[in-house]
Write a structure and sequence with these properties.
This protein is an all-alpha fold. Helix content is about 75%, strand content about 5%.
């Protein structure tokens, strides 16, 4: 490592925590200066997306176990919270704990079954188990209300010592709940990444047989990673259920939820601390732009396609429902041109600029990875 690289590394060690503190301060003050409900709604969606991606990253990114059935834990948190609140009138902050307990049981059952398999067989098994849960929720009508779903009619106010902390009548309480959960998931992921557990998971990801030959208990560490991931994912499910106020099996247990969770990490950067954050910053605005026809209007404003033409009419009527197609195209682009995700692509650009375009010279990013600070 050259002297310049060491100096830049020390500089980044100072700048990164300072920049993190500034961003956190800005996020905590955001509702005080922005009271637009749609802006707060976007931020809450961004927080939920980050929580889901960060949770999957522990088992998928660090342990290399590509689960495509995380909707099971998301749905476990959502359904447990809503059923406890609507049928037994238990406040959602206690229901969250129930959701985590159910997700823990589901994770242990799924892990004990699916971790006997590897590669694509594990992926298919995780999908199958999540589908079993979705069909169970669809048919257990006395418990889950079946396809009709559960509608939250009233959320009790949060009181501490007889004083009302919040009544959940605005989006601000959900904003702060989402922000605190994001901080929790990032801290947990950072702790996993820099612990013995994280090193063992990364060894399993690189070569399971080699890791096993070194004495690493594959089943134990995989199940621990899945358990942590499931608990955090259930928190996102509980937040979603209370915030939206309605759930049904396709909404919280559907395969598209699992795929969306995986896409967040693939696009942002698998196995990195901030990859899910970057993936959420890409997917959530894109999803909202598709839903509100902003992309169609942008195309019309360029004059390339007129709104009254046949192509314009087709785009206006169908582009808002083509999010799965757009996501697929985006994933293909990322895999072909940014195999390390958007975050990895940006790091390479920064490293190239830092080296003056020289190929093979040591960069700040390479120096950080060498010293174990890859995140």
């Amino acid at each position: 490592m050259t002297t310049d690289a060491i100096a830049k590394n020390d500089y980044m060690k100072f700048v990164t925590p300072a920049l993190t503190c500034v961003i956190l301060a800005g996020l905590f003050l955001f509702p005080r200066f922005v009271d637009n409900p749609y802006a707060l709604h976007l931020m809450i969606l961004l927080f939920m997306s980050t929580i889901m991606g960060q949770s999957w990253n522990i088992v998928g990114g660090y342990a290399g176990q590509y689960s495509v059935g995380h909707a099971a834990y998301f749905g476990a948190g959502a359904y447990t919270t809503m059923v406890l609140m609507q049928q037994w009138h238990i406040p959602p902050w206690y229901g969250v704990l129930g959701g985590m307990a159910v997700a823990l049981v589901v994770a242990l059952v799924i892990g004990s079954i699916c971790f006997r398999l590897r590669g694509p067989y594990f992926v298919l098994a995780s999908i199958a188990v999540a589908e079993i849960l979705r069909l169970s929720a669809m048919n257990l009508k006395d418990f889950t209300n079946g396809a009709e779903g559960i509608l939250a009619t009233d959320i009790p106010p949060l009181t501490v010592g007889g004083q009302v902390v919040t009544d959940f009548l605005s989006k601000v309480p959900f904003y702060y709940m989402g922000l605190l959960l994001v901080i929790l998931t990032v801290v947990v992921t950072y702790g996993v990444q820099h612990s013995k557990l994280g090193y063992c998971l990364q060894a399993i990801r690189e070569d399971q047989d080699a890791a096993h030959s070194l004495g690493i208990n594959l089943t134990l560490y995989k199940n621990v990673a899945l358990t942590i991931s499931a608990l955090l994912t259930s928190l996102a499910g509980s937040l979603y259920a209370v915030y939206i106020g309605f759930i049904d099996p396709p909404t919280v247990l559907g395969l598209d939820i699992s795929v969306q969770i995986v896409l967040i990490c693939i696009i942002g950067g698998i196995g990195t601390l901030y990859g899910p954050v970057v993936g959420s910053l890409v997917l959530v605005p894109l999803s909202e732009a598709l839903r509100s026809n902003l992309i169609s209007e942008a195309i019309f404003s360029t004059g390339i396609v007129t709104e009254s033409s046949a192509v314009g009419t087709f785009l206006k009527e169908n582009l808002a429902h083509a999010h799965a197609l757009i996501y697929g195209v985006l994933v293909v682009i990322v895999i072909l041109f940014m195999p390390d995700g958007v975050l990895g692509f940006l790091r390479k650009l920064m490293a190239k600029r830092g080296n003056g375009g020289r190929v093979g010279a040591p960069s700040v990013c390479q120096a950080k990875e060498t010293s174990g600070g890859a995140a």
